[in-house]
Amino acid sequence: MKSMFFSKSFVFLIISLLLASAHVYSQTFETKVDSILQHKFQPDEPGGVFLVAKDGQPVYRKAFGKANVELNVDMKPEDVFEIGSMTKQFTAIAILMLMEEGKLKLDDDITRFIPDYPTHGKTITIHQLLTHTSGIKDYTHMKSIGSIARKNLSPKELVDFFKNEPMDFEPGEKFQYDNSGYVLLGYIIELVSGMGYEDFIEKNIFQKVGMNHSCYASDREIIKNRAYGYQRHGDKLYNKRHISFNITYAAGSLMSTVDDLLKWQEALNHNLLVSQTTIDLAFTNYTLSNGEKINYGYGWHLKTINGMPDREHGGSIFGFKSMAVYIPEKDIYVVGLTNCDCNSPTQVTRDIASLAAKYF
Q1: From which residue to which does the signal peptide run (predicted)?
Q2: Predicted confidence (pLDDT) per residue in 217-236, tens digit
Q3: Which of 104, 211, 231, 324 has its CA 20 to 30 A from that of 330?
Q4: Dihedral sign for Cα atoms in the order 81, 86, 89, 90
């Protein structure tokens, strides 16, 4: 009986030590992430929110700095940010959803949907729009972009703004990041579905996934827990410059939270929106016409962290920056959202993902 007592005590001791060790291990990870982010964000300046999830569960979730500098409002983990080009993930998945419904094919020429689009005798496919290999000029790089930046153009009017520009290269010849391609994809979503882009994303993605704090951006609507955007010029901080969200449209006009973006990642992981075969298309490293890999799928950059393949994308729009990294091998998701476009979360998000991959 005595030996059994010591055996149980020994087992209890080992379990206690393991639990204590796990607690310290977790604390160490938290402390290291805190150190990275506290160095980047000052308490009295615009800040950010960061979340780390392992196996779909948050292991780190904190806010830094101010959500509103003028009113001295601290940032909260629940705050809502403009996510800029992370919008492209949602546009890409919306296209894949329509593909599964048989309403379009990825090798369709865009003139099937926009007959008057001048392709200069070339075939430009939906696939090439998704992969930034179409050769269409990026309208955000046009000198005349300032003339429309604050106008509430319709999708057709926005397409008309850039459609007559000369091609930058032959379709499929190069990878060149291109917002025009995702504007065209948004317009095609509207033409094929019969719904506005905003309504399509809200009904078919946000509502289905339970992303209750995500929306198409607006400067006029009251959005609970909105983080206000800032820009810095020299040493001075300013409220963000106004731009019409009809101009950034399907390439960059969504708002979200770190919690909703984790729901988004989980929806992708569990095939809530499209089948596994279809989602694999988004995460395929495609090639140019010469066979060269582009390290991009549909709406995601495909890179590596600690030698492991990852899927990542950032976003930048006046007053805000965003970044998210997913490491499939470890089921680790890291997302960072900031409310000053002077303070990019890109590198720190990758650094935190690298750190998480070593800990978990």
Answers
A1: 1-26
A2: 999 999 999 999 999 999 99
A3: 211
A4: positive
| Cα angle 53-94-90, degrees, rounded to a multiple of 5 | 40
> Which residues 6+ apart lie within 8 Å of 98 measured at CB?
104, 189, 192, 193
pTM of the complete model: 0.92
Q: How many Å apart are CA 352 and CA 346, to the nearest integer?
A: 10
Taking the C-alpha atoms of residue 351 and residue 345, their distance in angstroms, rounded to an integer, is 10
Helix 87-100 vs helix 258-269: crossing angle, to nearest 10: 30
Q: Give the pLDDT confidence of 20-64 residue by residue, as tens digits.
A: 444 545 579 999 999 999 999 999 999 999 999 999 999 999 999
d(CA 258, CA 254): 13
Instruction: Report pLDDT for 326.
Output: 98
> What residue ranges in the chain does DSSP mark as E strands?
48-54, 57-64, 66-68, 73-74, 81-82, 215-216, 230-233, 236-239, 254-256, 301-305, 308-317, 320-327, 332-338
* Domain edges within the chain: 43-359
The CATH superfamily holding the domain 43-359 is DD-peptidase/beta-lactamase superfamily (3.40.710.10)
3-state secondary structure of 67: strand
Provide the 8-state DSSP code for 203: I
Q: What is the mean pLDDT of residues 331-342?
A: 97
